[in-house]
Design goal:
The protein is α/β, with parallel strands linked by helices and 519 residues long. The protein contains 14 helices and 22 strands. α6 crosses α11 and α6 packs across α12.
């Protein structure tokens, strides 16, 4: 966004207030409220700011800057500063992911992004996956506190980094918008998320309203707002994605898909929104293979097989250290087209010298000891393949179930919005080849990038979107995939590449025929 004036979630105003004296003995708080009433109506003071009024206002000669955020029908007073500080108005947008956390510092006068940082979520110390952390914290207040403190520590580390890169003290940020899945927000607030995973799968809360960031242990004096969740698996990160996709504003039928540890999807338009979600697994984040890794330097991110020879690229052009989600999707798609694997994902060792047996298991050796950056063989094994196909089957079955419940075919979808790091870097042809996405005309696909972070930024820089956030949370109809009696049998059908029904994937069928893989 450029340097035009914006309507940020917080407002910063400068006031010159007449001081008490000559029989004017109105209280300091009331003096400030009276000055605000014409423009802001009802304003609420926190006790922390009440304690700050004296001696600040008198020392500033009653020339003060006030920061406010709108909370329903009222305004919350967030900060008091001596003098005119309207030119320094900052906020933070956060994507609280289970694996990594991204934070963006924003100039709330212009919407300009001043800096962005991302680090691994410190919660990982208590379990690589969400479920491990949930069991770790279940009914153990000390453990729950440890996970919360790890989350807060991640935020504070990011604020320190942003301060180093921008030169702006993150404590001066008056508002922080956090977007994350339902479990992550529970952990952030130190609330046991166990009810999310126990029947009837109802979260402790869906909406937090504004919270005092300082009370949570965050090194910023402003307020915190968490994007609301809809259900156990449908969190604020999905609401953020919908803010960007704008399904609710359009006549055309749109499908929003975010596949990560969970698979979340929303189908609809301005007349209806129906959502479903479920566990997809860590496969698409490079989290299954012994040599799987996040999309960082040295990760294999693209693969092609030319004249039966494997060719790959890595992030940063380094020697390979492992393979990330986009590399895995390419690898499987290319092996399928070249006949290195059959339609069930089983390796055909006679097809390539790259397919080797280690112990009792076959795998594809995508980097030898001489080729890798670690001096170790890099393998994608049959077990890795099976786990990935489970994830792919879960994701594609969710989409098929959602479409069927609404009585529409895949081709009826006018626009398919893909979200997340995986959706950003993935090769679309490869994803369709293995049946991860429906076989739609390619121009219908729209990549939203990190829609969790971008949605938090959208709300931070446009307070009017708060009404949309509330509306989306209330309007979405949530389907429980777990309640579908035939879900498991459907998943079994989807375990084949691209699917047991090739007619669902006409372009893949044509490519396989061209390669001599189908008659």
């Amino acid at each position: 966004m450029g340097d035009q004036e914006i309507q940020a979630l917080s407002r910063k105003i400068f006031l010159t207030i007449s001081p008490p004296g000559n029989g004017d003995i109105i209280g300091d708080q009331e003096r400030i409220l009276n000055a605000l009433t014409p423009d802001f109506g009802a304003v609420r003071f926190s006790r922390r700011l009440l304690k700050k009024i004296y001696p600040l206002c008198r020392e500033a000669n009653w020339e003060i800057t006030l920061t406010l955020v709108k909370s329903g029908a009222t305004w919350e007073l967030v900060e008091l500063e001596p003098g005119d500080w309207r030119h320094r108005h900052f906020g933070l947008a956060v994507d609280l992911g289970s694996t990594s956390v991204a934070m963006r510092m924003v100039d709330l006068n212009t919407g300009k992004v001043l800096g962005e940082e991302s680090i691994l979520n410190h919660q990982i110390a208590y379990g690589d996956d969400i479920l491990s952390r949930i069991f770790y914290a279940k009914n153990k207040p000390a453990h729950l506190l440890a996970v919360q403190e790890a989350t807060i520590g991640t935020f504070n580390a990011l604020m320190n980094r942003l301060e180093e890169t921008t030169g702006i003290n993150a404590q001066k940020s008056c508002i922080m918008v956090v977007s994350g899945n339902t479990t992550m927000i529970h952990f952030l607030l130190g609330i046991d998320p166990w009810p999310i995973f126990e029947y009837p799968f109802a979260p402790v809360f869906n909406h937090t309203g504004y919270l005092d960031a300082w009370d949570l242990g965050l090194n910023t004096s402003g307020y915190l707002y968490c994007m609301p969740s809809v259900a156990n698996y449908l969190g604020g990160d999905t609401i953020s994605g919908l803010l960007l996709a704008g399904l609710h504003e359009k006549d055309e039928l749109g499908l929003f898909i975010d596949i990560g540890t969970n698979g979340e999807m929303v189908l609809g338009n301005k007349n209806f929104l129906v959502a479903g979600a479920g566990a997809a697994g860590p496969a698409l984040e490079g989290g299954i293979s012994k040599n799987g890794m996040k999309a960082t330097a040295g990760a294999v991110d693209s693969v092609i097989i030319v004249e039966n020879e494997l060719r790959l690229t890595t992030i940063g052009g380094h020697r390979p250290l492992g393979i990330c989600g986009s590399g895995i999707v390419d690898l499987i798609a290319q092996m399928l087209l070249s006949g290195w694997i059959d339609f069930s994902g089983r390796f055909n060792p006679e097809k390539s010298r790259r397919i080797v047996k280690r112990g009792e298991e076959y795998g594809v050796l995508y980097a030898t000891r001489d080729e890798s950056g670690s001096g170790e063989e890099l393998l994608f094994t049959q077990k890795d393949m099976s786990q990935f196909i489970d994830t792919k089957a879960a994701a594609s079955t969710m989409v098929a179930y959602l479409l069927e419940r609404l009585g529409v075919e895949a081709m009826d979808v006018d626009r398919l919005y893909v979200s997340g790091a995986f959706g950003t870097y993935i090769n679309l042809e490869s994803a369709i080849t293995i049946g991860l996405y429906p076989d739609l005309p390619r121009e219908r696909f729209v990549s939203l990038g990190n829609s969790s972070l971008n949605g938090a930024y959208a709300l931070l820089t446009n307070g009017d979107k708060m009404e949309t956030v509330t509306m989306l949370q209330e309007r979405i109809e949530y389907l429980e995939f777990g309640a579908a009696t035939d879900f498991i049998s459907r998943m079994y059908a989807a375990r084949f590449l691209p699917h047991t029904d090739f007619d669902l994937y006409p372009t893949v069928k044509a490519a396989l025929k061209k390669q001599g893989r189908l008659r």
